[in-house]
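Hi C.,

You asked whether I'd gotten around to modeling the 376-residue construct. I have! Everything is below, sequence then structure, no commentary in between.
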Amino acid sequence: MMARFVSVSSCQFHFGFREVPPPSVTSYPRRFEVSDGRFPAILIKCSSSEPENGEDSAPSLSSSSSSSTSEVSTSDSSTYNWYTGIGGIGMLDTAYLTYLKVTGSDAFCPIGGGTCGDVLNSDYAVVFGVPLPVIGFVMYGLVTALSAELGEGNLPFGISKTNGRFALFGITTAMASASAYFLYILNTKLSGSSCLYCLVSAFLSFTLFFLSLKDVKLQEIQQVVGLQICLAIIVVASLTASYSTAQPIPSRSGDIELPYFRTEISSSSSPYAIALAKHLNSIGAKMYGAFWCSHCLEQKEMFGREAAKQLNYVECFPDGYKKGTKILKACADAGIEGFPTWIINDQVLSGEIELAELAEMSGFSLDQANAANQLQ
């Protein structure tokens, strides 16, 4: 019996490794391949907690970052839009005050007697020879222009956005400091006089300051708080130096006592003015005024002596005026705040109104105007 030895070669395994890309660009699942010359290749799948489609995760991170940046940009743009809007209102307000200062006129006569004209014609309405409303107009213009540039992110002269915000913070700090000082002057040196437009300007200045305070981060405020305090001190010191020789004006409402008197109208009336006055009377339009109000007299002068008699005029102080005198109940019920005030078809018009505007507001027809012109 012969025994035959058969030579058996050991089974050879060939391990083949595929090159694995860097983790940032690796596509899952990874594969580990074991191959044998006589057996099919075995593919071993390595599971991962990451999603199978690895390409989806990177865009999601990018999208999240982009969305966050977009939200911040939108928020900044909205804030600077507020700056621009408030600054624009401030420019209109100070432009009107400049007009009143240059022309020496006033909007209307308030109930208390003191007017914007009293304030604007005082020594406190000029700072080192420059009219105060002009300075206010320039400052509001700077805020409007700078905030518009910050909103677009395109500052001139290579100024960074951070420095631009600091500059805006400095401007609004100076404006708020000046407004606080002016309110002090109004209450102490100009007592008895009121100026609604001046108060509106002060309110806008404080609003801009608090907006800029919110815009600048706490860490950044700590860096410039000393500079802001110095800036406020310089503003107050400059105004104090400018007003060192200013003379306060006496209180009107506290001291004066005016007996009632009739005003005389010197101008004659045109047929057009007479026809318009009769039309205003026929539709129930009323003019509310006070005997001491210069603007009321000027409004009557526009109509002329004959036409003024046709107007439905309401005198709000028929018994004269002194401290504590109450306005006529009809005027109080109508909510009158100054003179002259027109109420035409439930619409309120304050101040002197041109005849053409009164005709338009009251529906004075073209035929009536032509008939009046023919008579003329």
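If it helps when you're writing up: The CA atoms of residues 277 and 310 lie 6 Å apart.

Thanks,
B.
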